[in-house]
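Moderator note: this is an archived Q&A kept for reference. The question asked for a predicted structure of one protein chain; the sequence and the answer are reproduced below.
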Amino acid sequence: MNILMLHPHDIYSLLEPWTIRIKRIASEFVKKGHSVKLVYFPQDKKNIYKRNIDNNVEMISMDRRVGIFSLFRNIIKIVKLGRECDVVHFQKCHHTASLPALITAFIWNKPIHYDWDDWETKIFYYSNPRQKIVGEFINAFEKLIPKVVDTVSVSSKYITNLCIKTGVDSGNIFFAPVGADLKITENDSDYTKKMRKKYNVSNNFVLYVGQLHGGQYAELFVKAVHIIIESGFDATFMVVGDGYRLSELKRLAVRLNIESRCIFTGAVNHDVVLEYIAAADICVACFEDNDITRCKSPLKIVEYLACGKPIVVSNVGEVRNMVGGVGVLVKPGSSKSLADGIMNLLKNDKLRENLRGWGKERIKRKYNWAVTADNILNAYKKGIENKKLTCK
């Protein structure tokens, strides 16, 4: 099968790590014998309209700049790419990718697949509450797209319900949560020595990984660290990631007088992030309970589990299904509950050891990219069948 995939962001930017999903799915398609062209939109205009091969996937960059001329030129180029494809796939509702994808599928009468992994309207308004015009433009696209595509893959049951509310037939909705690479469980001891030496860590090492943008709630972790330290626990705490809220979190650590025990690494390449996870004693994923978090299947959780790490996670949305009893669930939005969960693991060596093995087994059975790719391939097959029926 020849597959044309589109993502509206920069797959090579450390500041846009959410592109990992489409890269991993594309790689799995290639492993399964399919041919993939992946279109993306780089941040730097010097990198537009370039092609390269990455893990046997053909990567093709477009122009991200705002304007009718850039959009029109992108559409022409993407339509040409779509002529020989069997299916068109795009992730997220942003018009820079979704509009060219829809036009391409329409012109060549190809099945069109939408990978819906987040509620983009809610995410936008979380960080930009006053930008109503842009927000409602995103909202209009996000409501329209499920109605006009052939099939939809979703990352959570909550998004499944959103699809059904827009009128999508449940038979055209396919569950495709995030996955982990099974190979990342290797060399734990080597990574532990490397990271402990690099950061001069000699005690328990508690890790938070994530984007430090809106809707990520890393401040819950920082506040929990203060509670844990005040309770007399000896540990080092680390935040791996970058974003516009990084400076705010650092100021919070100073205000709580925990900056000497809390390390902020800044942006780290995703492949290296896995080394940090492998080195940690406990890993944390904390959220509030709202429309944004109910839609997510957080990547960090499955990667923590794949590395065999004891985890403490906020019980919201898809999280309980992902963890499946192999982690400590805590009340969302509560630093106190989060701190209690972490302290429970810090003082219970036997529980930590039990959680290590259980987490790895869960990833092998269910939450890995090979399973996710198979589910989306089933969506493509359904889309092709639907297209044949409408053509008769």
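Archived answer notes: Residues 78 and 100 are 7 Å apart (CA to CA).
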